[in-house]
Amino acid sequence: RLDQALRAARRAGYPYLIMDGTLIPIDRVAADRPYYSGKHKKLGMNIQVLAAPDGTPLWTSGSLPGSVHDLQAARIWGITRRLQSPDW
């Protein structure tokens, strides 16, 4: 869970976390516009990863359609809201 990963990061004393989104290509028909990523020019699913400063993955999101921008995905998963809280 995201909350558990953030608590572990706080306990570890990480000064920052790395957030990265990636597109996992999928085989779908071209009519599936929600899955089309304009950035990558292909169909796929958007996955978000939070990692420690050394790159160790701490949390991986579920998947969203490829048309969802990384920042929007971070908002959907609550990443931005949680990281803006003073307790993070």
UniProtKB/TrEMBL annotation:
Database matches in Pfam families: DDE_Tnp_4 (PF13359)
Provide the cofactor list for this protein. Answer: a divalent metal cation
List UniProt keywords, sorted A-Z: Metal-binding
InterPro entries recorded = HARBI1_dom (IPR027806)
This protein's source sits in the domain of life called: Bacteria
GO molecular function per UniProt? metal ion binding
Q: Which residues form the DDE Tnp4 domain?
A: 19-84
Residues annotated as transmembrane: none
Name of the protein described by the UniProt record: IS5/IS1182 family transposase
